[in-house]
Prior knowledge:
rod-shaped; mainly alpha
Amino acid sequence: MASNTTATTQAHGGAADHGGAFPPFDSTHFASQLLWLAITFGLLYLLMSRVALPRVGRILENRAARIAGDLEAAKAAQAQAQAAQVAHEKTLAEARAKAQELGQEAHRSLAAATEAKRKALESDLNAKLAAADAKISETKAKAMANVDSIATDAAGAIVEQLTGRKVDAGAIASAVAGALKA
């Protein structure tokens, strides 16, 4: 049983110990490894130079052409936008000038209409003032015509009250006329 309890260090199916160095570092294989390295490098170089690098070159050329085209399109769009901005500013300037002209024209027409209404109102007021002056003058003339008779009657009544005698109407009228002239 003692033989059953001993452990073995060798795994089942394991390879036998060759006793040499790691195969890539074994100097006996250097020549074949260098040959295969040269062949593989050459094939990779050919593959890269004939297939991969031309594709990458075409992709870079396409990208450069697309970028250049996009830049040209952007420059054209920028020029078009600037032209549109200039046209827009010109349109705005024309609209402002037209609006200012319309405002001035409206101001002038309103001023003319106001002036015409003012003149019509002024002439109407002057006509009413002249009619009122004529009426006042007429009323004053009537009043002044009656003042003589009223003054004569009042003076006669006053003298009669004070003296108790009746006074001559002609004497009173001449005295009143003299007082009014003075």
